[in-house]
């Protein structure tokens, strides 16, 4: 089982990367004891910016970009986090996912998340990120996570959930979908293994 987080943060350190890491930690915590092994990878799009631009022009991905695309399309579950630029996801974020085959994310469980300087941009999750992954036919979990500057270290109040609670809820939803998807694939794998054993027995006979 593999969990991949895509961070489109441009600075170092980055609140976008921090949110991606916190979400990944939440998913790992939820799946602890349920799966024997969970591989986790974080992709920093900042490091692939030149390769993404070149791919858009030439149509050929450099090896690091090709590896990142393979990691995203091969993941059991996906976390995507973008900073907000002009009330939407970043151009780098969109350019990267423009390189993904439109059918490659079909049915893949995804948590969408974003960071910004003010809570006024939180609707970017619903008017930009969710439609993008709906178009890619991914399965987007109900809870999306937005982190404004004032959300870090905030526990919320009697009427609103704080950022840690939203991260836990989104992580739990993604973990449940990943576990369900893995269990659906297991019987098929068992059937293949059983068939291989039967064929092996026939050869020995």
Automatic annotation (TrEMBL):
- An example of a Pfam family matching this protein is FMN_red
Q: Residue limits of the NADPH-dependent FMN reductase-like domain?
A: 1-152
Residue ranges that the Swiss-Prot or TrEMBL entry lists as coiled coil: 28-55
**InterPro entries from the entry?**
CE1759_FMN_reduct, Flavoprotein-like_sf, FMN_Rdtase-like_dom, NAD(P)H-dep_FMN_reductase
Species of origin: Streptomyces gibsoniae
* Entry EC number(s): 1.5.1.-
List residues traversing the bilayer: none
Entry protein name = FMN reductase
According to the UniProt entry, its GO molecular function terms are: oxidoreductase activity
């Amino acid at each position: 089982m593999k969990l991949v987080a895509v961070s489109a943060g441009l600075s170092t350190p980055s609140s976008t990367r921090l949110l991606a890491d916190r979400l990944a930690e939440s998913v790992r915590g939820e799946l602890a004891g349920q799966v024997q092994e969970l591989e986790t990878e974080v992709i920093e799009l900042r490091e692939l910016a030149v390769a993404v631009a070149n791919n858009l022009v030439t149509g050929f991905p450099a090896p690091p970009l090709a590896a990142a695309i393979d990691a995203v399309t091969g993941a059991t579950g996906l976390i995507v986090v973008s900073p907000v630029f002009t009330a939407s996801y970043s151009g780098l974020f969109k350019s990267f996912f423009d390189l993904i085959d439109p059918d490659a994310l079909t049915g893949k469980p995804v948590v969408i998340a974003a960071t910004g300087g003010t809570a006024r941009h939180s609707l970017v999750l619903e008017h930009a990120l969710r439609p993008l992954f709906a178009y890619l036919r991914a399965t987007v979990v109900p809870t999306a996570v937005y982190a404004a500057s004032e959300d870090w270290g905030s526990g919320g109040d009697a009427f609103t959930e704080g950022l840690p609670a939203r991260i836990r809820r989104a992580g739990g939803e993604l973990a449940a979908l990943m576990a369900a998807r893995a269990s659906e694939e297991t019987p098929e794998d068992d059937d293949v293994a059983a068939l291989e054993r039967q064929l092996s027995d026939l050869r020995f006979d």
